[in-house]
Amino acid sequence: MTRIAALALLAATALSSPAMAQSLELGRGLSFDAGLGVKYSPEFMGSDNLDASPWFILRSANADRGKPDGLSILPSLDYVGKRDASDYDDLRGMDDIDRAGEIGMKLSWRMGELTSYGAIRKGFGGHHGVVGELGAKYRFEATDKLTLWTGAELGLGNQDFTGTYFGVTSGESTASGKPVHDPDGGAYIARISVEARYEFMPDTALMGRLTYGRLLGDSGDSPLVETRSQPSISIGVARRLNFRF
């Protein structure tokens, strides 16, 4: 996928520059929030019903008050629940999809209260595609304990990914009666979000996120999609981890 490949090339170029090395402050350490929660999101991509799944929390803490502008690098993790066609009337005749994990990296560039970012991950299990996001967030510190973010992003996936979740093969078409659909890769969803972090104990915080997504292009045109609107709500607890070098 050309956009994700361009992101990886940009990261490799940035890593070779002295300015980037200074902004990372590798001599001082690394700080991030890590935790786990629950996410209520569509039962499957394109569904109009919500279901619960794990929410893996991994956020750079370098955007806190008093931290310098610059680049931060973190792992990027995600999870996609299994899709059993027999559980949904609208998916009768479709193949089942196993649970999928995704692992990769995320680059964030902070400029004042605005942070732009890009993430790229490789799937394993239910899908073996390449996925990622490009987006930006604006940070607002309501109190010493409460921080809010608003954001917008594009979700990207290559053809292996979009074909797995939005495609209909000839065999599935015969079994389900749905038309064959072979979606292209690229931007498959646009999202806007509001997030909150409330530090109720030192280095321990309650995290929340409310997101509205809209399926795009070939993915949104899939005969499997019941609605293009894809809302989700997530809540969890995260612990701040600090590493010194």
The CATH architecture can be given as Beta Barrel
Sheet of most strands: 10 strands, antiparallel
What is the helix fraction of residues, given as a range?
A: 10-25%
Give me the secondary-structure category.
alpha+beta
CATH topology: Outer membrane phospholipase (ompla), Chain C
Task: State the domain count.
Answer: 1
- H/E series: HHEEEEEEEHHEEHE
- Which parts are unreliable, with pLDDT below 50 for 5 consecutive residues or more? 1-27
Rg on CA atoms, Å = 19 Å
Strand content: over 45%
- Which oligomerization state do the chains in this entry correspond to? single chain
Overview of the molecule:
- This protein is α+β, with helices and mostly antiparallel strands and 245 residues long.
- The protein has one domain: Outer membrane phospholipase (ompla), Chain C (Beta Barrel), CATH 2.40.230.
- Helices cover 16% and strands 51% of the residues.
- The chain contains five helices and ten strands; from the N terminus they run ααβββββββααββαβ.
- It has helices spanning 2-15, 18-24, 159-166, 170-176, 217-220, and strands at residues 30-42, 50-60, 70-80, 100-111, 114-125, 130-141, 146-157, 186-201, 204-215, 229-243.
- It has a ten-stranded antiparallel beta sheet.
- A hairpin with a 7-residue loop joins strand 1 (30-42) and strand 2 (50-60).
- The radius of gyration is 19 Å and the shape is elongated.
- The two termini are 35 Å apart.
